[in-house]
User: What shape does this take?
Amino acid sequence: AKPVKLSEYRVADHVVKTVHLDIVLHPTATRVTAVLAVEPHPQGIAGAPLVFDGDGLTLAAIAIDGRTPAPEAYEATADRLVIHNPPAGPFRLTLETVVDPQANTQLMGLYRSSGTWCTQCEAEGFRRITYFPDRPDVLAVYTTRIEAEKKAAPVLLGNGNLVEAGDLPHGRHYAVWHDPHPKPSYLFALVGGDLAEVSDTFTTRSGRVVKLGIFVEHGKEDRCAYAMDALKRSMRWDEEAFGCEYDLDVFNIVAVSDFNMGAMENKGLNIFNDKYVLALPDTATDQDYAAIEAIIAHEYFHNWTGNRITCRDWFQLCLKEGLTVFRDQEFSGDMRSRAVKRIADVRLLKSHQFAEDAGPLSHPVRPEIYHEINNFYTATVYEKGAEIIRALKVLIGAEAFRRGMDLYLVRHDGDAATVEDFIACFAEASGRDLTQFFLWYRQSGTPQVAVATRHDPVAGTFTVDLKQTHLPTPGQDVKQPMVLPLAFGLIGPDGAERPLFTEDGKAVPGVIALDAAQKSVTFSGHPTRPVLSINRGFSAPIVLKTDLTAADLGFLARHDGDAYNRWQAIQTLATDHLVAASRKGAALAGGVDILADALAAVLADAGRDPAFAAQALTLPSESDIARELGAEVDPDAIHAARRALRLAIRSRLDGTLSDALSRFATPGPYSPDAAAAGRRALCNVALDLWASGGEADRLATVAARHRDADNMTDRFAALAVLAQHPGADREAALEAFRERYRADALILDKWLALQAAIPEAATLDRVKALLADPAFAMTNPNRLRALVGSFASGNQTQFNRPDGAGYAFLAEVVIATDPRNPQVAARLLSAFRSWRGLEAGRRTLARAALERVAATATLSADVRDIVARSLG
Ligand code: B3K
Ligand code: ZN
Assistant: This one.
């Protein structure tokens, strides 16, 4: 198929102003009647044929202004409706299609999940319901009438406000929903099913009472309280932090168990993967609670950034996604510990986005070409998209940033906007030229910055030499220097922050804008050498190489006023050691003592912020080390190095670790709040390190903690420790866990994922056996991600088995999944994104597996695109 190019954007020749849908729900033959107010676009091609999108549709009836056109006047295929000579002015187009929700295994368009009818229309699902100009710049006002058998679907939900409902003969009923806000088709949604409702209200700052509803499977009502609370906090926060008030009388959330991603921000009717709604202390971990809070907020925040202001075309996806991720990160930062949230976000950014950007799937935050838009819901668009906005805020300052946001929200309300529109608001608000800044959206790859420092004790000057470089990425061999806002500080030998003066004595702000290939900055007033703390708070999403010594890093770990950089100093120490150890063996890699001392200091001070200490004690992951190595990666060597370092740290901190277990035990009943979660996080990393040697008595302690835990966080953390140590205890604990939660699919997903991540040669057979386990279902995206996704992305040594069996397995699953659900298949396949960095033997085997996928006769556009770019 032809690729779509940003440079070829033009308006639709025919737009739709209002949509009246009449949908009669039926398991296999749902009848959709659409009455569309169509008009030619003033900037479109006059007299052009009408061309609407379709996907797998059959047209049952058509009328133009109430009259059936002659058969030769139009052409309707599964994927297109063409009317050769449409009326020159506005007209009413009536279309009738019949769709089969039960047979819809792609989970795009209208489908069924455990008997509930639901929809997913972003990016291009609406065209699987009716023919339509299915593109985000066609905004219409929707009225939806839904009819169903009352017993099968007592609940009927649509976008906007409920305007009418009633019973019909023969046990049937209907509801009519009207959404007054013009919206693109991708925000359309409906739900019909037998669901329980948890309701509440929220009063907006202007006094409007909004009815809130969360709809879940019967019997799960008691698992919605946290999501509801998170929703109300999100609504309040968005008023306070961004001035955004909710704009309908109702806000509904529906949890379904078959869903391709996390959730969807349909106007007034968010549909969620139930994993991001349901939580009780015994079913969800602290991490689950935090994810629920973040995703509830994210989807709610889309009401303004995404829905009120939408995207002109799918190239602008980051306009809504990057911005909304930035907003949800800020929200979680305000709800929890800001520094810890930042650390968690940067960890995720590096492990997902940096890895993506360093391989064949690298693309700009605003791509310029795509074959399949579903493959661009990536860490780059989302997470790097959010980083760019954070960097912009550092560059222009918080006040100008807020003015720019306010301007954007007012100026573009009701628009389908572009990234240029967005950035123009900040240029105007700050009075700065942001042309160079815009390169962040156009250039792919992670900028690399090298920092060297010079101290002249006689002159009392301290000079920072900065240099930026850009590696080639697919389609971009040569790049221009970008503007990188680097927050920084200088720390004196006493550990105190030094004032910042230039050579001529002028005070300077704590941000260097590195906007050329090279730049040097000299500071005066430093008779003794200060230590540079740079890229504080990870102000620019870059790979940073400094000339800081291990001693400097140890010093920063203790004294840096920036909590993020205290953590980063420890990570850098660990990373430097692990990279060296992976190349030449642990014995030859230094830095362990300094690292262990820094960790001991963190533990001694852990009372101040246990969650921070937990982050510090969590070593870089195996894939982090692989990314640092970049080439000739041997996952077994990395695993061995990491294991050896854990043991070395353990032997130096042993007593402190076991003390931490009692010192930070959480008193009283479980509460998901950040403080309690931080204590549990610290105890659980301490436990993991303390038991890392696998001594029988220690494992017995872990097993007891597993058994006696009164919440899922501690129970599962202990199980995860046990899982790393082979033996009968492990198998017994796994079996007991399974028995205990046998009726709870979401919890068994954890059980599947944990087993798939065991770093042992027997794991692949275990995973294959689990494919046949009743807890697994090939048709459910959560199960697939838990078992296969966790194996491919979370188990470096076993996915990358030296015999290639891990690759072959993933290829098989992808080939088997693709005909049913291309989106999920393509997502799984992207686990190969770093294959080129592997050592030669594994590289050859990975290539062979990718080629096997490529050679499959009938591939979806989704998988074909990922495989082609991976091999390309
Ligand atoms: N906008 C949706 C993602 C849709 C993915 C389509 N393949 C969820 C979100 O980002 O909020
Ligand atoms: Zn989003």
Remarks:
- The first helix runs from residue 225 to 242.
- Residues 480 and 572 are 28 Å apart (CA to CA).
- The chain has a mean pLDDT of 98.
